[in-house]
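Lab notebook, bench 4. The sequencing result for the construct came back, and we need a structural model before the next group meeting so we can plan mutations. Quick request posted to the team channel:

Model the 3D structure of this chain.
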Amino acid sequence: YFMNTNELIEAEDKYFINTFARQPIVLDHGKGVKVWDKDGNEYIDMFAGIAVNALGHAHPKLVNALQGQVEKLIHVSNIYYNEPAIEYAKKLLPLTEFDRLFYANSGAEANEGAIKLALKYTGKSEIITAKDSFHGRTLLTLAATGHEEYREPYLKNLPQGFIEVPYNDIEAIKEAISDETAAIMLEPIQGEGGVNVPSKKYFDEIAEICAEKDILLILDEVQTGFGRCGTLFAHELFDIKADIMTIAKGVGGGVPMGAFLATEKVAGGFAPGDHGTTFGGGPLVCAAANAVLDTILDEDLLENSKKVGAYFKDKLNELKEKHDKIVDVRGHGLMIGVELSESGAGYVDKLREMGFLINCTAGNVLRFVPPLIITNEEIDKLRSAKTE
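Done. Here's the predicted structure in token form:
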């Protein structure tokens, strides 16, 4: 039966557990970088489902891959082998510094697995994480997440062993290391924390510390991976070598999927029975992941992310020169943050009303993470928008 926008919103308010502060629109369908709501209003999507819809909406290669796989197998469990999962691992791993992977269903689940592997491999109990980091919303990943507002309601129940230090502060890491330090867990660029970009020297010194102290480095590339920052993974920008890496968001182009990757040596920390999943690495999601990775590489979307992202930053910096309210423009590729001297929530609302979907994070940072297929033309449309 048909419900209009107001009826749909009222129904959700009645039936859903209330944990989201949603924008007051009901999205109905999309094509490319555009989406339309239930009332027919058109938007340029510069949020991409929180950096998930790497190929935009209804990309024919992703649609065809999903349709074809639905007709064959959707789920088989991990009791059996399935071809799309093996094909994807064989395709992805040679593009990285890692040797093995484990499939998961989300970024939080991938991070849980990475943390478990680090603790199991080292036999130690502490992991150093960063203030303003975001690693997930399960109890364990909340303990690793450097946002007090997310953790505070659960503090009494959080696991111990996560040591939080300021991001991009090497001295703080040195001071936090103990005999029980198993790993340092960081985002190459912090997303939820405000698109915070570290120095290359920071990661160079972390590499030296990890080698000297025999500490693992875990990179959370959940938001920064798959071309988001102009390279396949953001750690390539800093020439980082890690022991474990987590991925999700863009990997499936909108289909829920994640994984953690590890070197051969560290992967040996798990034996059969040490970890598991029912849905992770199923044929449907892996068919999607294969299509997304093929398209990113075949259509040179890494270069598009780099070039359009640079153009976008240039235009935003031009605005910065004209408006004192813009404090900073930062990021790489198509992961860009615009820090304001005031709250950004009102700008999100104004731009939505003008036909642009964006997000505000860390209170005053406008976050732009559009599909990798976006062009300068869409950037120019945003540039011409007047929000004052």
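The mean pLDDT is 97.
Will bring this to the meeting.
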